[in-house]
Amino acid sequence: MRRLLAIFCLAAPFAGILWVSSYARITPTLLGIPFFYWYQMLWIPVAAGLTALALVLLRRDRRTDSEGTPR
After folding, report:
1. Which of 3, 9, 23, 64 has its CA 20 to 30 A from that of 29?
2. Is the pTM above the cut of 0.85?
3. Which residues of 19-54 are buried (b: 16+ CB within 10 A; e: fewer)?
4. Containing domain of residue 45, as a range?
5. What is the pLDDT of residues 20-41, one digit of tens each?
């Protein structure tokens, strides 16, 4: 289950950025910045957080495997 969640955490930023038609517009603006730009910039900290979460999940999964306890 942890590995599946880690895969989702790593795949979400790709899906959010590669689906261009979902954010290829000007409105709403944020401090005068068109949506197209601030949406992409928002993904930078989100992707970093999701990558860190995936790392934590995979480390816990590896630790559980090495201890020999059932998942």
Report:
1. 9
2. no
3. eeeebeeeeeeeeeeebeebbeeebeeebeebeeeb
4. 23-66
5. 999 999 999 999 999 999 999 9
